[in-house]
Amino acid sequence: MSETGVYALEDRWDDHRVTLAYRPWDGGERREVFSTDKMAGYIEPRGGIVSAGYLREIESFALRPGWDGGAQ
Question: If exposure means fewest CB atoms within 10 Å of the residue's CB, which of 18, 40, 57, 64 is most exposed?
Answer without folding.
Answer: 64
